[in-house]
C-alpha cells in the first residue's frame, strides 16, 4: 500500500549511518551525568540539540527536497547543527548567534524552493498535509532566528530580561518542527484513505500551530493559566487526530507506527498538563521525575516515530518491525531512570542504540537505497 511519505523513498545508507552516529553521540551526551558524574550534565544541550535540531532538522530538509539523500544544503545544515550543539554545551556565544542565522537562512532557502516565500497555502483549500509540511519549515527557520536574537540579547545587549527567555526554552522550541512534520505524515495517510471533513483538517492545522506558538510565548512570560488553556486545547486536538486516525485502522505497519506515536503524544500531553499544574501550585515539587517522563514520551516516543517514518521512506516491511514498537516503549519508559543511575543509563543507551539501529540500518524491501 502506498506510503504517506512524500517522496516514498528510503534514505541512502551512508546518510542513515551518519545519522545513527549523531544519535549515538546525542545519547552519550544525554546520559553523561549518570555515567561520569553531575559535572557532565553540562553536555545536556549537546544531547537535545543534536537530537532535535541536527538530526530532526536535517531529516525535515531532505524530506522537503523530495530526494533520498542530502544535497549541499542539507550537509551544511547537518554540520551547522552539530556546531551549534557543541557551542551550546560550551556556552560559546559568538557561534550561538552566528550558527542559527546561517541555519535559518538554509531552511528558508529550502522552503522558498519547495513552496514560496509567503505561506499562501495556509489560507487556501489545499491538503492539510501540505500545510503542515510548510509550517514545519517555517517553524524551524523562525525558531532559529529567534534563538539568534535571544543569544545576542543574553550575551551582549540585555534589552529584554525574562528568566525563561534563555537557551533552555529552545529545547522545546526545536522539537516543534519535527512534531509538525509528523502530523503532516499522519494527515497524508488520512487524506489517502478517507474523506476528511474540511472543518476537521482546518481546525487541526490552525489549532495545533497557533496553540504551539501561543504555548511557547506563554512559557516565556510564565503565564501559568494561559499555559494550561493552551495545553488543554492542544490535548483536545491530539485526541481528535487520534480519533480520525483510528477510523482508518488497518493491519499495516504504518498505521501501527502512527497509532503508537499518537499514544506517546497523548501521554506526553497529559504529563505536560500535570507539569504545568505542579509548577503553578507547588513549584517546590516541579521538575523531575514528571518532567523526565514528559520529555521521554514526546522526544523519544512521538518525535522519533516521525523521524522513523522519514528515515524509512514509509517502508516498514522488515523483519525487525514487530520488535521496534515494543522496544521503543521499553526504551522510553527506561529513559527517566537513565538520567540518575549508571546501570540504568547503560541499559537505556543499549536500548536506544537498538531502537535507532532497527530503523536506520535494517534492509529495505524496495530498491533505491
Polypeptide structure, described:
- By secondary structure, the chain is mainly α.
- It has a single domain, classed as Cytochrome C Oxidase, Chain A, CATH 1.20.210.
- 75% of the residues lie in helices and 0% in strands.
- It has 14 helices and no strands.
- α3 (44-65) runs parallel beside α12 (290-312) and α10 packs antiparallel against α11 (253-281).
- It is globular, with a radius of gyration of 19 Å.
- The mean pLDDT is 87.
How do you describe this structure in short?
With 369 residues, this protein is an all-alpha fold. The chain has helices at 13-30, 32-36, 44-65, 72-90, 93-114, 128-157, 169-173, 176-193, 198-220, 224-246, 253-281, 290-312, 321-338, 342-361.
Computed Rg: 19 Å
**What name is given to the CATH topology?**
Cytochrome C Oxidase, Chain A
Whole-number average pLDDT?
A: 87
What's the β-strand tally?
Answer: 0
Give the overall silhouette. globular
Q: What is the percent of helical residues?
A: over 70%
- From the coordinates shown, what is the CATH architecture? Up-down Bundle
Q: What is the CATH level 1 assignment?
A: Mainly Alpha
Structural class: mainly alpha
Counting DSSP H or I runs of 4 or more residues, the number of helices is 14
Question: How much strand?
Answer: under 5%
Order of helices and strands: HHHHHHHHHHHHHH
CATH superfamily, by name, is Cytochrome c oxidase-like, subunit I domain
Query: How many structural units, i.e. domains?
Result: 1
Distance between the amino and carboxyl termini: 19 Å
Largest sheet: none
User: Could you list the spans in which at least 5 consecutive residues all have pLDDT below 50?
Assistant: none
